[in-house]
Design goal:
Radius of gyration: 25 Å
CATH topology of the domain at 30-144: Jelly Rolls
Strand order of the largest sheet: 1-11-17-13-14
Distance between the termini: 5 Å
Number of helices: 5
Oligomer: single chain
CATH class of the domain at 30-144: Mainly Beta
Order of helices and strands: EHHEEEEEEEEEHEEEEEEEHH
CATH architecture of the domain at 30-144: Sandwich
Shape: globular
C-alpha cells in the first residue's frame, strides 16, 4: 500500500490526565500541580453588544481545567452572562456544550461560580455579555498538569501507543487525512479505501503521461460508500467508466480522504482499554525497552481486544 499521512489527528484516544489517573501518578504538591491563568481581567466592564468581551485563550490540552467566574459588584440592574468557548487553533471557535454559567445579577453578584472543562479542544476562553449597567467581575482558569518532563514523556507514550494500535488493527483511530495512491484503475466498478471509518473523500484525481492532474467530479464521475466502521469504497455511478487515458508511470491515481472516529469517546472501549494497557507497559518498562519494539502480542488481553477489531484486508 502506498499511503501518505496528510493531516494527523489533533487529539488522542486518551488524555494526559486520564493516563496519569490510570498510572496513579502524583509526583507534585498541589501548589506545583496547579497553574492559575487570568482569562478576563478582574475589573469594571462596560455594557456590551452580545458576547463580545473575550478572555485570553488558555492551553488545556491533555490537562484538567476549572474555569471560575468571580463577580464582585453589578451596577444597578446590570447582568452578566458568561460562557466557555473552545478551539483547536484559536480561529475556529465554538461554544462548549454545558459551558454557560448562571446569569449574574445584583442578587448573586458575590457568588463565585466554577465549571470543570471536560471537552477535548486545546484552547478555552470565556465570552461575556454585560447588559444594562457596568459590572465588576473576572474569569480565571485553573489548570492541573504533571511535571513537565513526566508530562512530555507520557504524551509521547500516548502517541506511540496509538500509532502501534493503528498499525496492528490497520485502522485510523481518530480524524486524520490521508493520500492513497494506486498504479491503475480497477477492473471492476469500485475500489476499497484503507483504515476504516471513512468520513468523507476530499478528492479523486489522476495524472496523465505529461504529469497533468485531472480531478474527478464527485457524484458524477464517482460515488462514495462510507460503510460505518468498515472500509469505504470509491464506486462508479451506473453507466460510467474509469478514465481511459494513459496514466503517469508513478502513483498516477490519488485519493485524498478523511477517516477515523470523530471523538475519543466514540472509539470502542476495548480499543481504549488496550491503548491504556500498552501505555502502562511502556511507562512501567521504559528503562527496559523502547517504544518501537513493543509487541502487543506479548499481552494476551491486548491481543484479544485488538484482534477482534482488526481490518482483515491488506492494502
Amino acid at each position: 500500500m502506498i499511503a501518505q499521512l496528510y493531516a494527523p489527528p489533533t487529539i488522542e484516544p486518551i488524555t494526559l490526565a486520564e493516563l496519569e489517573a490510570h498510572l496513579r501518578i502524583d509526583t507534585m504538591t498541589l501548589a506545583e500541580a496547579l497553574t492559575p491563568y487570568t482569562c478576563t481581567a478582574a475589573g469594571s466592564h462596560i455594557v456590551t453588544t452580545g458576547y463580545t468581551l473575550y478572555g485570553t485563550w488558555v492551553d488545556v490540552l491533555g490537562k484538567e481545567a476549572i474555569v471560575y467566574l468571580r463577580p464582585v459588584n453589578n451596577g444597578a440592574g446590570g447582568t452578566v452572562d458568561c460562557k466557555i468557548q473552545e478551539s483547536d487553533d484559536q480561529v475556529t471557535v465554538a461554544d462548549w456544550t454545558g459551558g454557560a454559567f448562571t446569569q449574574v445579577t445584583e442578587a448573586n453578584d458575590t457568588t463565585i461560580q466554577e465549571k470543570a472543562y471536560t471537552g477535548t479542544k486545546q484552547y478555552i476562553r470565556t465570552a461575556s455579555k454585560i447588559l444594562v449597567a457596568a459590572c465588576e467581575f473576572g474569569t480565571d482558569v485553573m489548570v492541573k498538569g504533571a511535571d513537565a518532563v513526566v508530562s512530555d514523556e507520557l504524551t509521547a507514550i500516548i502517541q506511540a501507543a496509538r500509532e502501534h494500535v493503528e498499525d496492528n488493527t490497520r485502522r485510523a483511530l481518530l480524524t486524520q487525512t490521508w493520500d492513497y495512491f494506486l498504479q491503475e484503475w480497477p477492473e471492476g466498478d469500485r475500489f476499497r479505501l484503507p483504515f476504516g471509518n471513512l468520513q468523507s473523500v476530499t478528492s479523486v484525481s489522476w495524472f496523465d503521461t505529461d504529469g497533468t492532474e485531472t480531478t474527478l467530479t464527485a457524484g458524477t464521475d464517482y460515488l462514495v460508500e462510507t460503510n460505518g466502521e468498515d472500509c469505504g469504497f470509491i464506486v462508479l455511478p451506473y453507466g460510467e467508466s474509469w478514465p481511459t487515458d494513459t496514466l503517469y508511470p508513478s502513483n498516477p491515481i490519488k485519493v485524498r480522504f478523511i477517516c477515523g472516529w470523530t471523538a475519543a469517546a466514540d472509539i470502542p472501549k476495548k480499543i481504549r482499554a488496550a491503548h491504556l494497557m500498552i501505555c502502562a507497559d511502556l511507562w512501567q518498562n521504559r528503562e527496559a525497552q523502547t517504544q518501537t519494539v513493543y509487541l502487543y502480542k506479548e499481552n494476551p488481553t491486548v491481543a484479544r481486544f485488538l484482534g477482534s477489531v482488526r481490518i482483515p484486508w491488506e492494502f
